[in-house]
């Protein structure tokens, strides 16, 4: 019988709180970037997942993701309603903390991932259709993917894929789903003709600060223990965020002025990039990962804009592309001196890991993109995804929620 | 004969213009925060990645109703205080006023817009 470790348990409970805070932080990060007639709608799109997944995860989400493996594809139904998930540790995941705490910590990841997607389709989607999409997406995209990568017996995990805190499960899945969603529903009314200026950049900056702090829980907590790996993850996280922010600031300066929104975006990009690598790489490798992530996402935004694609808040560019690089960088920089439970990457004499990482990236991109695209199209044909032109013009705060943010 | 001066100026010049007009004895005025653009068509702002174009710029509009014989002097004062020499300094429109009614007293015409210590009193013109 495994022994509960008080330090590990305390750290993971704190991390659970930190990761929960990231969803409200994300809501304000996104909310500041939309027009003032849509801020309540945008906040709701993120906040609602604390409620929706807060219930779904307990009922069946955890069981599908982390229940006893069925064919490497999905978890079984043994943990429905969190039955049998209690104070005793689950040695499959962490021998030192209650299984229920692991489930709660993982819940926060399941909450923020679909919230991330919403940046792709703000200001134009019917709330009812969005709720239906979200519950289906969490069930058929998030839960299986989570099982493949992190569940014991999951087929990608079996292959030796390293994803410390959700490069594939969270960021690539959200980024490519956002891209698919935006392509399936089309742009906002007037996109490309009328400027859609962020209405409250201070909200976005505030959200960024809270996201950064929360990310210590996201990556540091993914060690599932208060140990050296957790510290490595925390320092890697901070270093990558810092490096990416500096490079982004420089890029925007070269293009005119060092934009505040750019600095904040650079931070998030660096944090997203290092997420899969955080528990496997040295601080200097993390610095390199962040520094390279910035131009990747910076020019991905340009590319997206030139294509006339209204993936409104650049989830694909800032999360999908940054974490794609982070997953591949894990295949380059991972070192067993940082984390004995990990593996060595290409630069430490193991080219095989890079190939494995590349495969995981391709699978995640393809699965998230295709399933999301088909799901949105089906919902669009059946119940309609978009609000009417009039509702969009008025703004979703009044038309969907019957409220005004600013009286 | 009463006229209305409608001056669209830079936000950041508003305080200087207001002080200059006060010095002249212009007591009553309205100020609006407006958005618009003229010949320039807008400006470029720093965005997330590179720059983007904003076509509606925030400006200040001042409305003043005054006697015809003070118009030139007041217009010149506004021009002097509002001018930077850069694109976007603004425009001044001058309209005829049909009638003015002061709600409290029912006074009409010039009497309705006369104030103690205003430009006419300063000049000794009653």
Structure description:
Chain A has about 400 residues and is mostly helical. Chain A has a single domain, classed as Ammonium transporter AmtB like domains (Ammonium transporter fold), CATH 1.10.3430.10. Chain A contains 14 helices and 2 strands. In chain A, helix 4 packs antiparallel against helix 12 and helix 6 packs parallel to helix 12. Chain A is globular. Chain B is an alpha+beta fold. Chain B has a single domain, classed as Alpha-Beta Plaits (2-Layer Sandwich). In chain B, helix 1 packs antiparallel against helix 2. Chain B is elongated, with a radius of gyration of 17 Å. The chains are: A mainly alpha (about 400), B alpha+beta (about 130). Chains A and B meet through helix 9 and helix 10 of A and strand 3 and strand 4 of B. Chain B: This is Nitrogen regulatory protein P-II. Chain B: GO terms for molecular function: ATP binding; enzyme regulator activity. Chain B: Pfam families: P-II. Chain B: One of its GO terms (biological process) is regulation of nitrogen utilization.
Entry summary:
Chain B: GO terms for molecular function: ATP binding; enzyme regulator activity. The complex is a heterodimer of chains A (407) and B (126). Chain A is mostly helical and 407 residues long.
Which features does this protein show?
heterodimer; A: 407 residues; mainly alpha; Ammonium transporter fold; two-stranded antiparallel sheet; 66% helix; globular; B: 126 residues; alpha+beta; Alpha-Beta Plaits; four-stranded antiparallel sheet; two-stranded antiparallel ribbon; elongated
């Amino acid at each position: 019988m495994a022994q509960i470790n008080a330090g590990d348990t305390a750290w993971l409970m704190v991390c659970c709180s930190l990761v929960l805070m990231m969803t409200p932080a994300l809501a304000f990060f996104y909310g500041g970037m939309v027009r003032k007639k849509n801020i309540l709608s945008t906040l709701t799109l993120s906040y609602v997942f604390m409620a929706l997944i807060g219930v779904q995860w307990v009922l069946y989400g955890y069981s599908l993701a982390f229940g006893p493996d069925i064919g490497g594809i999905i978890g079984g139904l043994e943990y429905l309603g969190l039955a049998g998930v209690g104070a005793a540790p689950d040695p499959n995941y962490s021998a030192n903390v209650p299984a229920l705490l692991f489930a709660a910590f993982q819940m926060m990841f399941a909450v923020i991932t679909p919230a991330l997607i919403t940046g792709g389709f703000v200001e134009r989607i019917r709330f009812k259709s969005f709720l239906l999409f979200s519950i289906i997406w969490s069930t058929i995209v998030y839960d299986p993917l989570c099982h493949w990568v992190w569940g014991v017996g999951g087929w990608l995990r079996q292959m030796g894929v390293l994803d410390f805190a959700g490069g594939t499960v969270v960021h690539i899945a959200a980024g490519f789903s956002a891209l698919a969603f935006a392509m399936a529903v089309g742009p906002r009314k007037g996109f490309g003709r009328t400027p859609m200026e962020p209405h409250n950049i201070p909200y976005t900056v505030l959200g960024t600060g809270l996201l950064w702090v929360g990310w210590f829980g996201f990556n540091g907590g993914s060690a599932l223990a208060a140990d050296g790996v957790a510290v490595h993850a925390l320092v890697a996280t901070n270093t990558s965020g810092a490096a990416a922010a500096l490079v982004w600031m420089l890029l925007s300066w070269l293009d005119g002025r060092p934009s505040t929104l750019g600095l904040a975006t650079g931070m998030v990009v660096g944090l997203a990039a290092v997420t899969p690598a955080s528990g496997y790489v040295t601080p200097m490798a993390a610095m390199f990962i962040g520094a390279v992530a910035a131009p990747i996402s910076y020019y991905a935004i340009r590319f997206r804009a030139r294509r006339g694609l209204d993936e409104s808040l650049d989830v694909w560019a800032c999360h999908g592309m940054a974490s794609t690089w982070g997953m591949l960088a894990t295949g380059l920089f991972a070192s067993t001196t940082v984390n004995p439970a990990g593996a060595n990457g290409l630069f430490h004499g193991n080219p095989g890991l890079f190939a494995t990482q590349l495969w995981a990236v391709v699978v995640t991109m393809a699965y998230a993109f295709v399933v999301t695209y088909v799901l949105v199209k089906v919902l669009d044909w059946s119940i309609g995804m978009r609000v009417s032109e009039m509702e969009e013009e008025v703004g979703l705060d009044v038309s969907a929620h019957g409220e005004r943010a600013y009286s | 004969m009463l006229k209305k001066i409608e001056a669209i100026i830079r936000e950041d010049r508003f305080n200087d213009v207001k002080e200059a007009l006060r010095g002249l004895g212009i007591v009553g005025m309205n100020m609006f925060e407006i958005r618009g653009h003229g010949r320039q068509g807008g400006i470029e702002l720093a965005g997330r990645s590179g720059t983007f174009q904003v076509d509606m710029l925030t400006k200040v509009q001042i409305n003043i109703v005054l006697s015809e014989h003070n118009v030139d002097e007041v217009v010149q004062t506004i021009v002097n205080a509002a001018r930077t020499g850069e694109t976007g300094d603004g425009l001044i429109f001058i309209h005829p006023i049909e009638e003015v009614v002061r709600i409290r007293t029912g006074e009409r015409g010039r009497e309705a817009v006369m104030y103690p210590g205003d430009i006419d009193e300063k000049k000794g013109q009653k």
